[in-house]
TrEMBL record:
InterPro entries referenced in this protein's UniProt entry, alphabetically: Aminotrans_3, Aminotrans_3_PPA_site, PyrdxlP-dep_Trfase, PyrdxlP-dep_Trfase_major, PyrdxlP-dep_Trfase_small
Gene field: LOC113515404
The UniProt record lists the keyword Transcription regulation: no
Molecular function terms from GO: pyridoxal phosphate binding; transaminase activity
Record's protein name: Alanine--glyoxylate aminotransferase 2-like
């Protein structure tokens, strides 16, 4: 049964290739999907084929949630205008957001996207501190605006990426598996690793103070997503925030990809590190696919912005339709207890992925919080060599099994699971069972791995590890770039 489409898929592809910039990302580029419908955690192509969506952290409460759709439709039938007129949806949304955040975060600015939110956050920080130098983390991504590309090593590090500005300072990402300091290579506890990574930020801050007088801001995703699903060691953010504030800087928590309860235990991921940022940026899941985002900051920072005398205006930011939709998203999060679901289903998914690690040597590390899980693939657990080709093969094989996942990280070897929050334990089981079969295709006849210590292999890997390479090379010969 064919679903809604106004033209054949071949014509859609032809027009896209003719009129849409080639730099625009397209999943499975060699054989793209034409998605015409979404319901909850599922998406449907033009033939009616159903795919389990394990990628989409934008359709936060599920694709086309009826309550969210109705809220947008109802408000659009009344009025959609800018926020220079009073309307209730905006102030209700602002109050609801503030109630989820710790004091003194209490002043909101509404924008259209996470990129815009981070751009405004940087502007607020510069006006408040009167400093320019920004500290960011390696492999971080904060948006596609020019100002955000400048502080996003995820883009700066690419061969065709722009040159890093002098005012941007890159600290090592606190990746305890393949970062600068790791366990057990450095024989340190988690707290000691947190301190070692925090000292790296302190060194940068001290250099900035010595040269330019003070830091403008430290900006970081509370959990790094595009950089490879990185979970900072406990205590890291607390120490970093201390160092940054000692250098007169403010701390920006980028919650664009990991906020609104994705971690399960808390509404905001920064809360898992027991810190209170000076500025918080939110977006993506806020509108369940509708463009709406926000910046929340302190009265002092907001006042310094107002004191410049330059009024802030955003044509679409905070319009009644966007705010009504965002309020509906909050309704669903509360009424369907999606934080509890993220905790329950996420714990199940993480446990099952760790079980896979006992069976498949290709899995080097499993990490995550709530419905934010990463599985890092390596060809050798001792050297932790990234299994990039294998990860690419697995993504394509999972698509053949009607399950959509993605890969990321600096070496594109980390499988990312960040599904809609309506994901179930049954969905998690289907995902892991299918991944188990796909991994088995790459394993050959190797025996299960059992000698593990704290999820890190401590005994040498046998030479049959190269068998994986041979199988992958055979399987991916027919797979074009996607």
């Amino acid at each position: 049964m064919a679903y809604l489409q106004s033209m054949p898929k071949s014509e859609t592809i032809r027009l896209r290739e003719k009129h849409v910039g080639a730099a625009c990302q397209l999943f499975f580029r060699s054989s793209p999907l034409k998605i015409v419908r979404g319901v909850a955690q599922f998406m449907y192509d033009e033939t009616g084929e159903r795919y389990l969506d394990c990628i989409n952290n934008v359709a936060h409460v599920g694709h086309c949630h009826p309550h969210v759709v109705e809220a947008g439709r109802n408000q659009m039938s009344l009025i959609s205008t800018n926020n220079r007129y009073l309307h209730d949806e905006l102030v209700i949304l602002a109050e609801r957001l503030v109630k989820t955040l710790p004091e003194p975060l209490s002043v909101c600015f509404f924008v259209n996207s996470g990129s815009e939110a981070n751009d405004l956050a940087l502007r607020l920080a510069r006006i408040y501190t009167k400093n320019k130098d920004v500290v960011t983390l390696d492999h971080a991504y904060h948006g596609h605006l020019t100002s955000m590309i400048d502080v996003s090593p995820y883009k700066l590090n690419l061969p065709g990426g722009p040159e890093k500005p002098e005012w941007v300072h890159v600290a090592p990402v606190p990746d305890v598996y393949r970062g600068k300091y790791t366990y057990p290579n450095d024989s340190q506890s988690e707290g000691e690793l947190a301190e070692m990574y925090a000292v790296e930020v302190d060194k940068i801050c001290k250099e900035i103070v010595k040269k330019n007088g003070g830091v403008c801001a430290f900006i970081a995703e509370s959990l790094q997503s595009c950089g490879g699903q990185i979970i900072p060691p406990d205590g890291y953010m607390k120490r970093v925030y201390e160092h940054v504030r000692e250098a007169s800087g403010v701390c920006i928590a980028d919650e664009v990809q990991v906020g609104f309860g994705r971690v399960g235990t808390h509404m905001w991921a920064f809360e898992t590190q027991d810190v209170v940022p000076d500025i918080v940026t939110i977006g993506k899941p806020m509108g369940n696919g509708h463009p709406v985002a926000a910046v929340i900051t302190t009265p002092e920072i907001a006042k310094s912005f107002a004191d410049t005398g330059v009024e802030y205006f955003n044509t679409y930011g905070g319009n009644p339709v966007s705010c009504a939709i965002a309020n509906a998203v909050l309704d669903v999060i509360e009424e369907e207890r999606l934080l509890e679901r993220a905790t329950r289903v996420g714990s199940h998914l993480l446990a099952r992925c760790n079980d896979l690690k006992l069976k498949h040597r290709l899995i080097g590390d499993v990490r995550g919080r709530g419905l934010f899980v990463g599985v890092e693939l390596v060809t050798d657990r001792e050297t932790r060599t990234p299994a990039t080709a294998e990860a690419k093969h697995i993504i394509n094989r999972m698509r053949e099994e009607k399950i959509l996942i993605s890969r990321d990280g600096p070496d594109s070897n980390v499988l990312k699971f960040k599904p809609p929050m309506v994901f179930t334990t049954q969905d998690a089981d289907r995902l892991v069972d299918t991944l188990d079969r796909v991994l088995a295709e790459l394993d050959g006849n190797r025996a299960p791995v059992t000698n593990l210590k704290l999820e890190v292999l401590v005994t040498p890997i046998s030479k049959d590890m190269t068998q994986s390479d041979a199988i992958v090379n055979k399987n991916i010969q027919s797979i074009k770039s996607s």
